[in-house]
Write a structure and sequence with these properties.
single chain; alpha/beta; five-stranded parallel β-sheet; 53% helix; globular; binds shikimate-3-phosphate
């Protein structure tokens, strides 16, 4: 088992594969894995959809902020973050205290393919044209993902296994694993 190093924070748009890739990296390198959305759901005892429905996005963002403050106190985890974590700079400041930020860059086409039939993302549910919405949200958020990333991996043309392997290899090369 490795010594406790920085957290490895995976950022990227909804549906790019943060959770699946994060779990694989964690498994490959025997590191513990956390998903911020799963933690928030466990704390609230509600799904992300229900939190948005019942309390609204602002409340969810508050929970997300609190969770990032907690993450600043931990070390040695692979953390898959919610796609909107970059909307609040203080989240990134907290995550960077003990973590390296990876942006899993992914094309709108691939994201759409991954989540076109998914109903667990409240911000995309009910859109007239999901692909258009993904494109416009990605365009808005892309500069932030770039701005905060310590390194970027374009995984648009990779399968999950390969993405995990490539990201892991780069993290090892940079000395984060
Ligand atoms: C969100 C992404 C979701 C979840 C919430 C909001 C966003 O996480 O945190 O629905 O604003 O992009 P995933 O990126 O894991 O889907």
């Amino acid at each position: 088992m490795r010594k406790k190093k920085s957290n490895i924070i995976l950022t990227g748009f909804m549906g790019c594969g943060k959770t699946s890739i994060g779990k694989r990296i964690a498994l490959n390198f025997e590191i513990d894995f956390i998903d911020t959305d799963i933690e928030i759901q466990n704390i609230c005892g509600m799904t992300i959809n229900s939190i948005f429905e019942k309390y609204g996005e602002c409340y969810f963002r508050k929970l997300e902020r609190n969770y990032c403050k907690l993450a600043a106190l931990s070390k040695g985890y692979v953390i898959a973050s919610g796609g909107g974590i970059i909307k609040d700079e203080s989240n990134i400041e907290n995550l960077k205290i003990n973590g390296v930020i990876v942006y899993l860059k992914c094309s709108a086409e691939k994201i759409y393919k991954n989540i076109k039939n998914d109903a667990t993302r409240p911000l995309l549910n009910g859109a007239d044209d999901k692909y258009e919405l993904i494109c416009s949200m990605l365009e808005q958020r892309e500069p932030l993902y770039h701005k905060y990333a310590d390194f970027i991996m374009d995984i648009s043309d990779m399968r999950l296994e390969e993405s995990a392997w490539q990201v892991g290899r780069e993290l090892r090369r940079l000395g984060f694993i």
